[in-house]
Each structure stands twice: as structure tokens, then as C-alpha cells.
């Protein structure tokens, strides 16, 4: 590997072609988040002003206190945790089992079924909103936890990612376990899953983020404030006080929404790149 230093021209080309776009992309993503976080600590005159500034000159926790008084944070936070934990656990389990069946179980029309799963990735979730609402309400699922969780249990992306990873596993690994008399359940739990940690973690993180941030379906199926999830509950702040005066409280509530997701991401981030690239190495 050459250690020769880059010439000034090549160094400038590298900076312009790589670092500048990278910095711009990071700023586009990060700056609105920083603005939201710092604005949550600003008093109202600093938010509604002709001379906006990023940092608060007089930081205050008043927006968080007011948002907590107007919104049952404990209840909606518990609802979000419950829906996210149960929904994500079931979705990851279904993705693993479905992918295992598509790769390691012999049955006809596997490719047709997989093609059908891929087609669902192209269909926007808004298309199924009305049929799901009609079905769930007819079964009495409005304003219930299972009514929020059930329609989103299928995860084509998770199944796709797990399938692609399972196809990279050496066939000899499974054949050895089969010769030892291991059934499908034992092969899955003792052989396949122990070597699939990064991919399972990636699917789990993507699923957790989607479940936690899901807004449209809980907004449609839930009308009682005590059953709202955190993203939907934030609308109560705007509806109760639908004026510019609620901006600070909305910023504080939005920060409360993203903090748990950031904690989960930090905990699982070392698995993400490995999990996303494992299935791309070999098909």
C-alpha cells in the first residue's frame, strides 16, 4: 500500500468530491434537529423573532414543563413503548421465520411467494389504509393496542434482508446439523441465528424506528387520548393551543420522541453496517 502524500491538487479534488458533499449532506440532516433541540430550551420571544439564532440566550425548561402539563406524557410514552416492543418483537420473529422457510425449507412456488413479498415493498402504505381501517373497526379493534399493532405485522423489508443473509450461509453448516438429527427449529435457533446477529440487529433497529415513529395508522385508528402513541399525542399540543405560542412545547415534545430512538440506535449502531452489507456480498 502506497504511503506517498497527495499533491495539493489531488488533495483539493478529494476534498471537493468527497468531504464537501458529505459535510453538506450532514448539515441538511443535522441542522433541523439541532434547531429543534435548541428551540425547545428557548422562551417564546426567542422562537418568534425577526432575528433568529441557533443557541438560546436565556435557556429554560418551561417548554418541557408546559408540554408535560398539557399532554399525559407518561401514558402516551407507555403506549408507544408497549406498541413498539410487542410490534417489533413479532415483526422480527415473523421476518426470521419467513426468511428461513424461503431459504431452507423445500416447498413449491418459493420464488413466486418471494416475488410477491417484493411487490409489497413497492406499494405505499397509504393504499391499504382504508381496507385496514374497515377490517379493524369491524372486528372491534378501534382504540385498542392490537388494533394499532396488527395491520403492520408483515415486514417485507425484514424478510428480504434476512433471506439475503441466510443465502450467504455455507450449506455445509446446515447439512452438518441435519446429519446430526437437528430439526428445523433446532437448526434455526442453534445454528442459523447465532451467526446472524448483525442482520437480526439491523432488522430490529429498522423495525423499532418504524414502529416508534409511526404516525398515520395510529392517528386513524385511535381517537381516545389515553390510547394515543407519542407521535400522535403531540397533535394534542397543537390542537389545544393551535397558535405560534405552542411552538416551544411542540419542539420539546418532538425531542422526547427522538431521544429513545437515538438511544436504541447508539446501542445497535455497530451492527448496522455489517447487517446491511452481509446480504450484498454473495447471493
Give a quick rundown of the structure:
The chain has 283 residues and is mainly α. Helix content is 71%, strand content 0%. The chain has two domains: 8-59, no CATH class; 65-279, MetI-like (MetI-like fold), CATH 1.10.3720.10.
Characteristic terms for this protein:
71% helix; MetI-like fold; cell membrane; mainly alpha; 283 residues; 0% strand; 2 domains
List the helices and strands and how they pair.
Layout: H1 8-39, H2 44-47, H3 62-70, H4 73-104, H5 110-121, H6 129-138, H7 145-149, H8 156-166, H9 171-179, H10 184-192, H11 197-213, H12 216-221, H13 230-240, H14 247-281
Description:
There is one protein chain. The protein is an all-alpha fold and 283 residues long. The chain folds into 2 domains: 8-59, no CATH class; 65-279, MetI-like (MetI-like fold, Orthogonal Bundle). Helices cover 71% and strands 0% of the residues. It contains 14 helices and no strands. The chain has helices at residues 8-39, 44-47, 62-70, 73-104, 110-121, 129-138, 145-149, 156-166, 171-179, 184-192, 197-213, 216-221, 230-240, 247-281. The longest helix is centred in the C-terminal third of the chain and has 35 residues, at 247-281. The mean pLDDT is 84. This is L-arabinose transport system permease protein AraQ. It is found in: Cell membrane. It holds the Pfam family BPD_transp_1. Its main location: membrane.
